[in-house]
Task: structure prediction
Amino acid sequence: MESSRVTRRSFLGASGAALAAGALPRGAFASLPSPADADCIAVSSANGIGAVATARAAVLERRLRPVSAAVQGVAQVEADPKDTSVGYGGLPNEDGVIQLDSACMDGPRHNAGAVGSLEGIMHPAQVAECVMDRTDHVLLVGPGAKRFALEQGFIEQDLSTETSRKAWREWQATRKEDDRLWPLNGADPDAPWTLDEKRPWGTIHCSVLAPNGDLGCCTTTSGLAWKIPGRVGDSPLIGCGLYCDNTVGSAGATGRGEAAILSGGSWLIVERMRMGDDPTEACLHALRRVSEQAQRAAAWQPALWAKDKPGFGLTFYAVRKDGLFGSATMIGRRGGPKFSVADAGGARHEECAILYELPA
Result:
């Protein structure tokens, strides 16, 4: 997987002496070749195949900044009632209320905006962008976030669909007295995490690298299904569900939000890329850190570590300023987990690297 500007071999060769000392020198990425002739690259979770195509076109055809392109890309997933993990048709909390979380981050200005537990607004990522551009705050939550969205001209609407209402009613009919500790549905950790699970999670992340080398990213979600009202996952937390540094790269997460929060996973990936890791290596490093943390936490919640591996799923995505990109997932079978990418070769799915590979 090679950049249109710098191959992994040439990049690592140029920085080998610094790596031998343990880290790249401060500002090392400023010496990369000019990105003026580079392609626009967008990476996303598997459900973002349309999002990456939209984001790339938004940069190349509409000349949007990368963060705005990412926000526009995820908008189609937020509006898709068939995707029950994001926006319209998202699965609700314990009370049957859909609460949305989202954040975006702009590399050139090193600024971000986010909303948490937002109700009744289909496009929380766009509200997050308004928080970033029109306030000096980073995160607004709950009724305050909704009030701000309405002030900005967003329209309140019912986000539930018959599918999401039916799924919630079925869960209510079978819920246990207290199912708030992991595993929330008693699932076999070897089972693939799909929307057929009783307690599915789902999210979309999108990172965008513009031809001039600028970066931006966005993560948006309806969060864990049937969550405790007011629960906020990693998606709106800068450094957890997303992070970008315009001198280095961008990263984001989907999966168990609590694990991404406790590890500061997206920030860690960007820092590993700063030290010389390619994006896939950086994602795997963050997953290994999460795995170590889960093993320690199992003394309190045994199901977090099952059959010699974490008992949950988590996937990271990253793009580096020199054009390399990659993704890695915690658990899966070869040929299974995918992520989305759009570049000069078009929009497509590619295979994620796997930390714990299951038998075929």
Q: What stands out?
A: The longest strand covers residues 111-118. Residues 155 and 222 are 18 Å apart (CA to CA). Residues 34-169+185-357 form a domain with the Glutamine Phosphoribosylpyrophosphate, subunit 1, domain 1 fold (CATH 3.60.20.30).
